[in-house]
Design goal:
The protein is 29% helix and 26% strand. Strand 12 and strand 13 form a beta hairpin. It starts with 5 loop residues before the first helix and ends with a helix. The relative contact order is 0.12.
Length: 210
């Protein structure tokens, strides 16, 4: 067994051998992933056999996600359109990938995709972008492509760094930008009549102290 770096060798003594009981990165499958995450409160996603550990959400992140979730839930409930499960909920994107969007909507027409542990799909998903460069790429590039490939009709991106809400609609096999909203109301193509007050959204996050 290779020796540990001095910083680790002199620190807390962990049962490093425990890691050998699990697959290597790149070799995880869905069964192993579900077994691990069912017993964990960490936000972990699976893509290409690799576990991706998401950052712990800040209160600002949760405030933005909660604002969107409650607005979406109220609209869908009022019009009896489907389900807006309380997050986190695991959803399959392309084969072998499982994501945990910050919010999702599943229509009655696609209720067959609803399952207890992992949704087979969704009609609308939303992500609040975290500040780290790696996390920004995940939400703005990687998931953008994955959710389109999964056939999810609408993708909302709430970007607190740029103070903008991006709404993408599925056109063919790719997303087209429906709107970039820095003020006023961000509206949905899929859910006619659903709109989000962008200024109120970011004002809610601004009320959270640093």
């Amino acid at each position: 067994m290779p020796s540990l770096p001095p910083a680790l060798a002199n620190g807390p003594q962990y049962a490093w051998e425990l890691a050998t009981l699990y697959p290597q990165q790149g070799a995880w499958d869905e069964v192993e992933y579900l077994h691990l995450t069912d017993g964990s409160n960490r936000r972990i996603e699976l893509t290409g056999g690799v576990l991706e550990f998401l950052p712990l959400p800040t209160l600002k992140h949760q405030t933005l996600a909660g604002f969107f979730y409650h607005a979406l839930l109220a609209f869908v409930t009022k019009h009896d359109l489907g389900v807006v499960p309380f997050p986190p909920i695991r959803v399959r994107s392309p084969a072998g990938q499982i994501r945990e969007p910050d919010a999702l909507f599943l229509s009655k027409a696609n209720s067959r995709w609803l399952h207890n542990r992992v949704f087979e799909g969704a009609d609308l998903v939303a992500e609040v972008v975290s500040g780290d460069a790696k996390d920004r790429k995940r939400d703005l590039v990687t998931k953008h492509a994955e959710y389109a490939q999964a056939g999810i009709s609408e993708y909302w991106v709430i970007d607190p760094e740029q103070r903008v809400v991006l709404v993408y609609k599925l056109t063919g096999a790719e997303y087209a930008l429906h709107g970039r909203f820095e003020s006023g109301e961000a509206d949905s193509v899929l859910l006619t009549g659903f709109a989000l007050d962008v200024e109120a959204l970011f004002a809610a996050a601004d009320s959270v102290p640093e």
